Structures are given as C-alpha cells and as structure tokens.
Amino acid sequence: MWEYTDKVRDHFLNPRNAGEIENPDGIGEVGNITCGDALRLTFKLDDQGRIKDAKFKTFGCGSAIASASALTELIKGKTLDEAAKLSNGDIAQYLDGLPREKMHCSVMGQEALEAAIVYYKSGGKKTAPPEKDGKVVCTCFNVTDKEIERAIRENKLKTVEDVTNFTKAGGGCGGCHEQIQEMLDKLNGAGTARPQPVARLTTLQKIDRIRDIIQTDIRPILANDGGACELVDVDGNEVTVRFKGHCNGCAFSNNTLVSVVEKKLREKVAENLVVKMV
Fold first, then answer.
1. How buried is 164 (Cβ within 10 angstroms: 0-12 exposed, 13-18 middle, 19+ buried)?
2. Which helix (H) or strand (E) holds 145?
3. Domain 203-277 classification at class level
4. How far apart, in whole angstroms, are the C-alpha atoms of residue 170 and residue 207?
5. How many CB atoms within 10 Å of residue 10?
6. Which listed residue (35, 61, 138, 176) is catalytic?
7. Which terminus in the chain has less CB density within 10 A, N or C?
8. Given the residues 61, 105, 176, 229, the one annotated as active site
9. pTM score, two decimals?
10. Which residues of 55-83 are buried (b: 16+ CB within 10 A; e: fewer)?
11. Active-site annotation holds for 176
12. Quick check: is 173 catalytic?
C-alpha cells in the first residue's frame, strides 16, 4: 500500500499555483495524456531575472499534482541558473518523500522546468528538455536510453523496477526489461540486482496465487482511491480482471491495469503474464 506524507496530501488537495500565466517567459510541456501523465509549466521573470511567478496544469494522479505544486513553490524567487539546479530529489524532499512507485512524478516536474528554461533561452524556438534525444528503449511510454541513463546515474538506481518507478520505462509490455537490465549492468557494473525466477506453477496454483496477490497486494492500493479489482478468468498466461468502485471507468484505468495490477502479478506470479480487463 502506498503511504503518502501529510505534505503530499496537502499539495494534492490544496494545490498551489494551478493555472497558466498569460504571456509567459517560459513554457515547458512534458508527458503524454495517453501514457497517463502530462504537465505544462509556465513562468514569468521579474526585472532582475528571477522567477516572479510560476503556474502549472497537469493531467495525472495525486502525486503528479502534488509534485507540480511543490515545483512552482520551489522555483519562485530563484534565478534560472538557480532553478536549473533543482532535481527531482529536491521536489520529493520538499514533500517529505514520495512512494517509490510515484517518483516518476517528481522527474516529470524536473523535466518540465528544464523544458521551460530551454524555451526561454531559445527565444521560444525550443520546447524539449535537454537529453530528450536518443534511442527509444520503452516504446510503450516513449522513454529514451538517455533518459534512463540519466535517471540511473542521478538516483543511483539498481533494478529494473527502480527504473520503472522513476521513468515508467518497462511499465508496459515489459519487452524492454532486458535492455534496461543491460544498461544497469553497464553503468553499475556486473552483479546488478536481477529479479529472481519464479517457480513454475500448475494452472490451479496460478489461479490461487493470482487471487491471493489481488487480495493482499493490489486491492489495498486501489482502495486508497476508492477502487477495487476482482479476477474474472485465467487462460494460459492471459489474466482477465474487472475493476470496481472508482477504478471502473476511470480515465487512468489502463495505466492502473499496467502499472499496478500487471506489474504486481508479473512480479509475484509469473513475469510473462498479460493482464486485460472487462
């Protein structure tokens, strides 16, 4: 179950600086609504070149809203050089911490700030944050090798799961896990932690294990947002579930299916499971 600090709850329920600045000096847009998260940051400078005001618009979860709110508070009064030194860790620290599974929200805030600074310094000609170029590794979430390498270095990531938590890479079909592991081995050296193989299960054992994981690991997470999940069918490696409560019909249901349900079942039952919903 994810544990949120009082500051995260406060910035989610009472976000600071929501909206958009008219005629901004800086504009930064990152993420993609189809992937579950998107953020637009705008700022205005004063006569001394300091950030006089900053506002945000975001499409995402509570942690994304809280991270964006914290970001705008952190950069006010700073010069662009001072703001550029802000890391995703600073955003998380300001909020007294974020769940490991939600650290990508703070990374999105850092990238939006970088994109807004690039926009200003290029006279409005460039909008992408630095190092966005590179080869796409995760096609599900359009994450490049440079983004993954940067996250590994700056946050001392050790496992594929860490990389997914910070960048979303590997949180979809899982086809890029091997490449991410190779990058971890290259940057951290041989012996990087690898997931332990799961013993082969009979069909009945698999069904029982899936039911147990849904009950003990998945339902408590969904319950935080008033949702629930139940097993409908298991056909080989294909698992069908039904969302209930607030998760039923939610705009983020596809993201939840992949990042929570499928991720947990692959981790604790079998890594080749494919989860669908009805």
1. buried
2. helix 145-155
3. alpha beta
4. 25
5. 16
6. 35
7. C
8. 105
9. 0.66
10. bbebbbbbbbbbbbbbbbebbbebebeeb
11. no
12. no
| pLDDT per position as a tens digit, 133-159 | 688 898 877 789 998 998 999 899 999
* Among 185, 162, 164, 188, CA closest to 174: 164
Tokens of 256: 């939840």
Chain center to CA of 36: 9
Tokens of 201: 């299960």
Architecture label for domain 6-121: Alpha-Beta Complex (3.90)
From start to end of the chain, where are the E strands?
A: 26-32, 37-45, 51-59, 136-138, 143-144, 227-235, 238-245, 274-277
pLDDT tens-digit map of 232-244: 988 888 899 999 9
The domain defined by 136-188 carries CATH number 1.10.10.1100: yes
